[in-house]
Amino acid sequence: MQGIIAAIPTPVDSTGQPVEALFLEHARWALANGCDGLNVLGSTGEANSLDSQTRRRVMQWAARGLDTARLMVGTATPSLAETIALTTHADDLGYPVALVLPPYYYTPPSDDGLLRWYSELHAALGDRPIRVWFYNYPQMTGFAISEQVIADLHRIAPDRFDGIKDSSGDLDYCRRLAAAMPALRVFPSSETSLPQAGEAGFAGCISATVNHSAPLCARLLRGGPGAAELAEDIAELRAAISAQPLIPAVKHLVARRTGAADWTHTLPPFMPLSTAQIAALDHHVPVVSTVTA
């Protein structure tokens, strides 16, 4: 798994229940319009606002309706037992990769504590083939996963711990990981890193905003004339989307593309976008031409 991966949102109705048809339509659109893969039930998917039963249901929709070889799924909770159960379920459904946040309540954990937590997850999975990719998001968890923890786990179980999504925004952290562990797939969380991917050894990006910019990102990766201008356009799009509350903004743009009002719903603690925020998005974020109808 490499290239452009969208961290896809989860549509919910007015009661907060996920909507299967809308979820699958957008997932298929993303895969047909520049995305190499999808991250299901990550931060953009509001996974940590959903109970385990609902997460299992969404996992099943994706596994049943999409090519699981192109999917990864968020399975982390602060509970090791629940994380093991969700990751085991993902493996049963055929997901090749689980994206796993570190335990994010008793923070900051020691490096030894993190090693123990991820090692026990690995041991519980036994000979199951699902890989566990680190999800480094210190703005949300309150701490960064140390490079030493990643190196130790990658050394102990290289076929299990062979990837990371980094949402810290620290590209030097990503470069050091890629340089120290060439077999580790390193994905920054912004598509603005794509022009540097080859030189830095990044495997691609896993991003919320590629739910909108994927067609441009795909053209950028193909290279050729105009690549520099495309990179500027992509950076401007990301900045304009990120200037608003990110998850509601991404959902608004999907609602704008599809005309489906349920896409505008979010789960607490998110609030609906204001009239001014919607106007800013619609003014600064143009419709991107799709690859397919």
Tell me what you see in this structure.
This protein has helices spanning 20-32, 52-65, 80-93, 111-125, 138-141, 147-156, 171-180, 197-200, 210-222, 227-242, 246-258, 275-284, and strands at residues 3-7, 37-40, 71-74, 97-100, 131-136, 163-166, 185-188, 204-207. It is an alpha/beta fold and 293 residues long. It has a single domain (3-224), classed as TIM Barrel (Alpha-Beta Barrel). Strands 7-6-5-4-3-2-1-8 form an eight-stranded parallel beta sheet, with helices on one face. The longest helix is centred in the last third of the chain and has 16 residues, at 227-242. The protein starts with a strand and ends in a 9-residue tail after the last helix. The model has no long low-confidence stretch (mean pLDDT 96).
Tags for this model:
TIM Barrel, alpha/beta, 46% helix, 12 helices, 293 residues
Give a brief outline of the structure.
By secondary structure, the chain is an alpha/beta fold.
Provide a count of the helices.
12
Order the strands across the largest sheet as they lie in space. Answer: 7-6-5-4-3-2-1-8
Top CATH class: Alpha Beta
SSE run: EHEHEHEHEHHEHEHEHHHH
C-alpha geometry? globular
Low-confidence stretches: none
Give the count of structural domains: 1
Portion of residues in beta strands equals 5-15%
CATH superfamily: Aldolase class I
- Percent in helix: 40-55%
Measure the end-to-end span: 25 Å
Structural class: alpha/beta
Overall residue-averaged pLDDT value: 96
CATH architectural label: Alpha-Beta Barrel
Q: Give the tally of β-strands.
A: 8
The value of Rg in angstroms is 18 Å
| CATH fold descriptor | TIM Barrel
Reported for the largest beta sheet, the result is: 8 strands, parallel
